[in-house]
Amino acid sequence: MGVLDHLFDLFEITPRRKRRKPWQTVEIKVKMDCDGCERRVRHAVSSMKGAKSVEVNRKQSRVTVTGHVDPNKVLKKVRSTGKRAEFWPYVPYNLVAYPYVAQAYDKKAPSGYVRNVAQALPSPNAADEKLVSLFSDENPNACSIM
């Protein structure tokens, strides 16, 4: 009887469950002018399946959705309200090596944030870098040059 029970357990057909989306936090930039805009966006996103919490910050033009949601579906749902929306393009400026280079600095960014761009570090063979290292304390030949 133990063998038969084992075989039935192996070949038992059970309905498969759908995979649940991973827990995510999606941040979206949406320009909201009034309470009505804020209410429309909040209602549209909170009615989505899997959305557990919705935070709307009208001052920063930011909507944060947390839950088992797909980021592209959240963006599409916000755009269906008639608002222009994009994924949150900013990071805190203290996390960026050069926060005020031309590509990263954005006048429309909230205070304390800059645009998230891949930044190139200066090459070590650049002329400016050679002059700085020429007269540094780590260079043993700096005294002979001066």
Beta-strand percent range: 15-25%
Mean pLDDT: 80
Strand order of the largest sheet: 2-3-1-4
Class of the domain at 24-88, according to the CATH hierarchy?
Answer: Alpha Beta
CATH topology of the domain at 24-88: Alpha-Beta Plaits
Please provide the ordered H/E string of secondary-structure elements. HEHEEHEEEHH
Decide which structural class fits the backbone: alpha+beta
Span of the ends, CA to CA: 95 Å
Please outline the major beta sheet. Answer: 4 strands, antiparallel
Radius of gyration: 27 Å
The overall strand count is 6
Q: Helicity, in percent?
A: 25-40%
Oligomer: single chain
pLDDT under 50 segments (min length 5)?
Answer: none
Give the number of helices.
5
What is the overall shape?
flat
Please tell me the CATH architecture of the domain at 24-88 by its name: 2-Layer Sandwich
3D structure, described in words:
There is one protein chain. The chain is of the alpha+beta class and 146 residues long. It is built from 5 helices and 6 strands, in the order αβαββαβββαα. It has a domain at 24-88: Alpha-Beta Plaits. The protein has helices spanning 2-11, 35-46, 71-79, 127-134, 142-145, and strands spanning 24-30, 51-57, 62-67, 85-87, 90-92, 113-115. The longest helix is centred in the N-terminal third of the chain and has 12 residues, at 35-46. The chain is flat and about 90 Å long. It starts with a helix and ends with a helix. This is HMA domain-containing protein.
